[in-house]
Specification:
The protein contains 20 helices and 13 strands. It has helices at about 20-25, 25-35, 95-115, 140-145, 150-170, 170-190, 215-225, 230-240, 250-255, 275-285, 320-325, 325-340, 345-370, 370-405, 410-420, 420-425, 430-435, 435-440, 450-460, 470-480, and strands spanning about 5, 10-15, 45-55, 55-65, 70-75, 80-90, 120-125, 195-200, 205-210, 265-275, 290-295, 300-305, 315. The chain has about 475 residues and is of the alpha+beta class. The longest helix is centred in the C-terminal third of the chain and has 35 residues, at about 370-405. β5 (about 70-75) and β6 (about 80-90) form a beta hairpin.
Length: about 475
């Protein structure tokens, strides 16, 4: 996002997007239906008009300020990048209100992008690497890794503890603790067995997206959906492996066999030099390069595994590469490097293992006296403590990313794109809704609420404290008490 303001009370914002021109022409209609109409009880929208001029599609409307009669005239230009031009009727209208209107539009653009992606052919490649199909969101180990809930992992751990206890009796807890500790120490290397490993010799990920019309999409589902692996392989063999630039002219030779007429304004090709981005971030942190694993999944996220940068791995999905711009992505990479720098994965795993062993060998007589209900409360309380610590670690990593990488606005922008579903509906920012925000803090989720992280990053001012852990603990407590 960029914004500029002049003496005529005109502010212009831009929204970077991976949408192709053929899809952007539907954006005004989408915003009118899913934003202006749906939120008319929240915003006072008037004089709504969509039109085309010089081949560009526009949406204009006025947003009136309650009880004042003042208004902002908004013009959305559906181009790449998307432009928002706001003209205020009075210079007294706060810039913060204009920023809210921009954020409303940004969130709705993310919803629109997801809808358009559902009607697109999407392929990802690394030259010289095996082809990997794009995974459904539900059936992959990486989707479990990126799950925002720790319920499953924790209770699987409890189930394993009883299996080991039955099989190995008194030695069971100790043996399971050793097994899990070894897993934590070598989890980075295990993660490197994922879809692709990025190296200096194979640094780039190529992302290809072709948008279908509704008619083409429905026809494709009926006739050629099972041939997606065949299309993927042909594009790789005929274009990618030959190190040719992906163009509509070359893609047409493949698409024509599947009833698709390639149009340049529907084809999007993005190349991300993942190796250089991680290398640049690692140099800022003064860390050695971790293993870089690419997971070919629609899930837009990244994660760190392992005890340290040298023995660890960073997992980055093709989904997040497609969704974020490079400056936004390097901020997310910095966040994950902070996890490795501070040994967060091994610390959390170590605490869980330590509690497990102490529970069986020292605390057992006292816990038995609590009864079944007391034991369940004890487990939930310990899990809550681990999750609270995880929230502090996540907040600390946000601070570290800004401290070493810089560009807090880009990191905040990236989080808005990744977490946009958790920021909707747009009126969640209003005071009447804030009393419910504490429930987000109480969720069994190792991340602080998205709204809190974004606001905190956007309001950071240099210099960043050296003691980022204690600053994050303090900020989290304040955020919980005053959501």
């Amino acid at each position: 996002m960029t914004g500029r303001c002049d003496l005529q009370s005109v502010v212009e914002y831009t929204i970077d997007t991976e949408l192709v021109p053929a899809n952007l022409r539907f954006l005004p209609e989408f915003l009118q239906k899913y934003y202006l109409s749906r939120y008319k009880s929240y915003r006072n929208f008037k004089e709504i008009q969509s039109y085309t001029e010089d081949g560009k599609n526009y949406l204009t409307y006025k947003v009136f300020i309650p009880k004042t009669g003042e208004y902002i005239e908004v013009t959305v230009e559906a181009t790449v990048p998307i432009k928002l031009i706001m003209r205020s009727s009075s210079p007294d209208i706060p810039k913060s209100f204009q920023d809210e209107l921009y954020e409303d539009t940004l969130l709705m653009v993310q919803v629109f992008e997801e809808q358009m992606a559902n009607m697109s052919l999407y392929f990802a490649y690394i030259q010289g690497e095996k082809m990997v199909p794009e995974s459904p969101k539900a059936n992959r180990w990486v989707d479990i890794l990126f799950s925002r809930s720790m319920y499953g992992i924790f209770f699987i751990f409890i189930a394993l503890s009883y299996v080991f206890l039955i099989v190995f009796q008194n030695y069971g807890p100790l043996l399971l603790g050793i097994v899990l500790l070894l897993f934590a120490l070598f989890s980075g290397r295990l993660a490197a067995r994922g879809d692709w490993v990025v190296t200096k010799d194979r640094p780039e990920v190529i992302l290809l997206q072709y948008s279908l019309t509704m008619e083409e999409y429905e026809r494709f589902l009926k006739t050629n959906v099972k041939k997606i692996p065949e299309i993927r392989e042909k594009i790789y063999n005929d274009i990618v492996s030959a190190r040719k630039k992906v163009t509509c002219e070359l893609a047409e030779k493949i698409f024509v066999d599947y009833g698709i007429d390639c149009q340049p304004d529907r084809l999007s090709v993005k190349t991300v030099n993942v190796w250089q981005l991680v290398k640049k971030a690692a140099e800022r942190f003064k860390l050695s390069m971790p293993k870089i694993v690419v997971a070919n999944t629609e899930v837009a996220n990244a994660a760190a595994m392992g005890p340290s940068p040298r023995l660890g791995a960073m997992i980055i999905t093709t989904g997040i590469m497609q969704q974020l711009e490079e400056e936004e992505l390097i901020g997310v990479i910095g966040h994950e490097l902070s996890h490795l720098k501070n040994h967060d994965p091994i610390v959390l795993f170590g605490l869980i293992i330590l509690e497990f062993i102490l529970r069986f060998y020292i605390f057992a007589p006292y816990i038995v006296g609590l009864g079944y209900t007391g034991f369940f409360v004890y487990l939930i309380a310990f899990l809550a403590l681990i999750i609270a610590l995880g929230k502090v670690f996540e907040a600390r990593c946000d601070l570290d990313a800004v401290k070493y990488i810089g560009k807090p606005k880009s990191l905040a922008q990236g989080l808005k794109k990744i977490a946009y579903k958790r920021l909707l509906p747009v009126y969640k920012r209003e005071p009447f809704y804030r009393r419910y925000r504490r429930l987000e803090w109480l969720a069994f989720d190792p991340h602080p609420p998205a709204y809190y992280r974004i606001n905190r990053i956007e309001n950071l001012s240099p210099p960043i404290t050296k003691h980022t852990f204690w600053a994050s603990l303090r900020d989290n407590i304040k955020g919980f008490l005053k959501p």
